[in-house]
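Input set for joint prediction.
Command: fold jointly, output tokens.
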Amino acid sequence: MRTSPRHLLALVALLAVAGCGSRQHDSAASTSSQSSSPGVAPSPPRTDALASVLPKQILELTSQVIIYECPKCDRMFDTAGQCLFDQSPLYPVKITYICGVDGTIIDHHGPCPKCGRMVQIEKAKMLPSGIRVEREN
Ligand SMILES: [Zn+2]
Ligand SMILES: [Zn+2]
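tokens >
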């Protein structure tokens, strides 16, 4: 008549799955459908804005007839305007390719067709004070 006490260990596992995850509303407005955000728009292409306006420097005379020179730095340019380096107004110069021996004039720099000597470059500088002619090889 011994009554052994039974300890009934009732293990009740309550696996409470907490469904408290933050819900994200999947409205389709988060991708690239909207273009109202500033700063993302690409800059407009600037290809023909200023490149054709500014004078271009001439490094060597080959067949130019009219050039434009800077009175300060003596750089040569292809169009009228301002010097790219010191903003001085350019003055026109008429170029003549002339042989210094026999006076033959040709339309480009090179040897004289008569004597074979390299022609000289004659610059008629149309300065505001008058035309000044200079020759250089
Ligand atoms: Zn200059
Ligand atoms: Zn010649």
